[in-house]
Amino acid sequence: MKAYVYGANGPEITDVAKPTPKGTQVLVKVHACGLNRADLGMTKGHAHGAAGGVGTVLGMEWAGEVAELGPDAKGVKVGDKIMGSGGAAFAEYTLADHGRLFRAPSNMNFDEAATLPVALATMHNAVVTNGALQPGQTVLIQGASSGVGLMAMQIAKLKGAKLVVGSSTDPMRRGRLKEFGADLAVDSKDPGWVDQVLQATNGEGVDLIVDQVSGPVANQNLKATKVKGRIVNVGRLGGTHGDFNFDLHAARRIQYIGVTFRTRSIEEIGAIFDEVRKDIWPAVEARKLQLPIDQVYKFADIGKAFEHMEANKHLGKIVVTL
Prior knowledge:
Layout: E1 2-7, E2 10-15, E3 25-34, H1 37-42, E4 56-57, E5 61-69, E6 81-85, E7 93-97, E8 101-103, H2 110-113, H3 117-130, E9 138-142, H4 147-158, E10 163-167, H5 171-176, E11 184-186, H6 193-200, E12 206-211, H7 218-224, E13 225-233, H8 246-251, E14 255-258, H9 266-285, E15 293-298, H10 302-311, E16 317-321
Parallel strand pairs: 9-10, 9-12, 10-11, 12-13, 13-14, 15-16
Antiparallel strand pairs: 1-2, 1-4, 3-5, 3-7, 3-16, 5-6, 6-8
């Protein structure tokens, strides 16, 4: 089968063996894939958790149909339309654990379905499970114009947030954040953004920050979070290191929580997918939670899709179809 593989000379489409499902795995005939920032790093040879390097079939988000079941796989049958996440997605067929997939709603095509699994699982876990957002509270999403950031704002609104603040350093994207639930859009490179957040929250700060930027805004985040507020760190778009004011952290009694899928077991990931199904799936089916598709490429042009991502001018998801 055809797959997009990182080789000795970089990523390229090549032939690899079609995988066989074992245990609780499902073999998926892939129809569309969503691109993610981690994929871009892996096209340059970077590792993502335990995955990466020469010989790696790239990709982590897909939509397709069940082609074959492992002996212990449950909950789906051959022919079911599904979407999910896991390694080796950029291929004609991929494997997924039965706990790491969703049934694709009937009112969604494969391209649309391929945009959702990573964003839904990541941001429900960050905003609701770890962020403990309650109706009437206030939230700031750092890096709000990314696909997962756009989803985070929508989930916050769905869960009854009184005020949703989104940050983006790009003027065009910042100007569109209100379409996805932002009541206030700020530029995290503007020295005055913390004052804007404090002004919007009567000087208190927000109850919750979901932070995808990290390093360069760490201390500003502490100032923008209310006493006994919460910061959930889900990424490192701005860098893995930065100055951190431990005294301010202690004085404001902030809960600082780190989350990632890279160190989670398949059982933990399955539990996260279960929570999405239990809590917000009706909103997914009603199309209240969705992401814009910026561009669609054919699989033969997947290299161009990554060039488009690297140019960093898109809003929403880039999709590749097979």
